[in-house]
Design a protein that fits this description.
The chain is of the alpha/beta class. It contains eleven helices and six strands. The chain has a six-stranded mixed β-sheet with strand order 1-6-5-2-3-4, with helices on both faces. Helix 6 links the parallel strand 3 and strand 4. The two termini are 15 Å apart. The N terminus is likely disordered.
Length: 228
């Protein structure tokens, strides 16, 4: 079935003709608190420094160097922190446990009334879900801090599949939970290589967002595009 083409101005990479579900990334997609996002990396690096017996500054440099090397070997594409930490002997299971123990979205995030209205409108037409590279509990707590948890049919985190995006396993689990094929879903996130590229190759729709204003405009985007 032919879908809509690329609309770079709108950051819509692809939309299938029939859409039944919207699948959101969470961090820096559904909120814009850079302080909270940076705190996550800082806390993980500090915990890693204890594991590898290095100072925090030494560990930070090692992580940055490893990430650069991995990105260079991956055509410059973004690499998730979970996959970087694997090279230091931190399993995805351990990474998810660290995140659950360390992160505190409630300290940084407030209810977003505009986002609540946007998701309420979208939920009238689509099932809404999230796939996050955080632990499931932190994903759910983040949604609750934003006041939007009731709109999400399911949240899939690191500790559901023990792989970090981009990977097909979270998408397969989502398809099973929602009871629909890939080509009825649209993935929405802030990182092309992590959130959008793989879903599109699997037949899902894909939307790359740069800011909360992009997310706030989604009802209009879907209404306009699906009329065309």
């Amino acid at each position: 079935m032919k879908g809509h083409g690329i609309l770079c101005i709108m950051k819509v990479i692809y939309l299938p003709q029939i859409i039944e579900a919207l699948v959101f990334d969470i961090d820096l997609t559904l909120y814009d608190s850079r302080d909270y996002y940076r705190s996550q990396t800082d806390l993980l690096v500090k915990r890693l420094s204890g594991k590898i017996k290095k100072t925090v500054d030494e560990t930070k440099l090692l992580v940055e160097e490893k990430k650069r090397d991995m990105m260079a070997g991956n055509g410059g594409k973004e690499i998730s922190l979970g996959n970087v930490f694997l090279t230091f002997g931190v399993s995805i299971e351990e990474n998810a446990r660290w995140r659950s123990e360390l992160f505190a979205p409630e300290k940084y995030l407030l209810k977003d009334l505009k986002l609540m209205e946007v998701l309420r409108e979208l939920n009238l037409k689509y099932a809404i879900a999230a796939i996050t590279n955080n632990s499931k509990s932190i994903g759910e707590r983040t949604l609750k801090a934003l006041g939007i948890e009731k709109f999400f049919k399911t949240v899939i985190g690191l500790d559901d599949t023990f792989v970090s995006k981009p990977h097909i396993k979270p998408l397969q689990l989502l398809s099973k939970r929602l009871g629909m094929p890939f080509n009825r879903m649209v993935s929405i996130g802030d990182r092309m290589a992590v959130d959008v590229e793989l879903p599109v190759t699997l037949g899902m729709g894909g939307i790359l967002v740069d800011s909360m204003q992009d997310v706030y405009s989604l009802p209009r985007v879907f209404n306009d595009l699906m009329k065309s």
